[in-house]
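Re: How this chain folds, sequence and tokenised backbone to follow
Notation: Tokens come from a learned vocabulary of local backbone shapes, not from coordinates.
Start of record: The labelled sequence and token lines come straight after this line.
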Amino acid sequence: MKELYKEHLSKILSVLNKTMQKNEYDEIILYSGEAKTIYLDDNKYPYKVYTNFKYLLPVLKNPHSFIRYKRDEKPELIVFQKVDYWDSQPKELEGEWTEFFNITYYHSLADMKNVLPSNLKNTAFLGEEINRFKDFSFKSLNDYSLIHALHFSRTIKSTYEVECMRKANKLASKAHNAARTAFLEGKSELETHLLYLKALSYKEEEVPYTNIVAFDESAAILHYVDYKTHEYDAKSFLLDAGASFRGYHADITRTHVKKGHESFSDLIQAVDESCLNIISKIKINMNYEVLQEQMHLDTAQILADFNFMNISADEIYEKEFTKVFCPAGVGHYIGLQVHDIGNTISDEYGTAHNMSIKHPFLRLNKNIEEGNVFTVEPGVYVIDQLLKNHLGKKEFNWDVISHFRAYGGARVEDSVYIKKDEVENLTRPYLP
């Protein structure tokens, strides 16, 4: 990983050098962030590192720390190491990446201003907590010329980033298998969720997003996180859950069903085949919205094959009935964030990219580029809120819809990496 990381950091510093020179900055300071205090309380929310901070290095649990970068020089990492007897003390940082930074430590927030340069008139600050720094005399606070350059750079993943995401998918797959076993053994939704965490040795706040653990009809709620606590003989199980490696994320969905429910098992298989079919259509320079249309073409065929509708697949597609059963977007960028940044800008200067009018829930409709990593996640659901506007319509086979309502829905989600001559599925090697 050392050489991969070296190339990754070099890419980012090159982006910063170019943008800093153009905007006449001598230095840039990135702040790792800090834990937020709950309103009218002295407890804090779980700390989450500033995303562009962890873009440069895998330091995830050190609030109040800084990256100081002076153009064309070795970057400096200034780590806050609190000294008291109330909290566990952070250890000195280790890893092959550390040789690419000059690392220093400070131990009191009162010294924060002293560890930064005394002259900040040509220095840019990037970070969330700008109120803390508004009197520090930085040249700028969160200059979007810098932010756009970083965010656009993040849409094209380095080899290091992709390797981190492979490892994240491997971790998540292990936990998916543990959760599937828990479901088949009759555990509750909550117990299944907790066994997922146990498989990763994660605390609740360490998952990249809140796990969706949905039995039976709960799978029709696309972001279901209520977790029933009682055990019961559930038929089906939709799990949308991820993992992380060095700050990079996996986002995987699989749907399972117990024996004796062949019709829904066949539906899961059809959705799985749709996922692989959509991936097979991917080409560089193709607009991502083409994949959205392919998902709806596949969904129309599924609805016809399983007799959800009393009309042909072509008519289902033309009348946009697929949106009743498949209302979500086909996927999104993924990386340092599960819904990774850069989907709304067209270039390093932040030129706005208009989102889809036809598919308002589609998070991404840019042209596909070499180096992109994004998800593909088709699904078919029975959502009463969407069906109620069509009650009584003869095109709908209400008996079949009622049958599948008990299972909620099926979704399958993989992440793919766009190479020059192929599309690498980052998920399937670990979770077929």
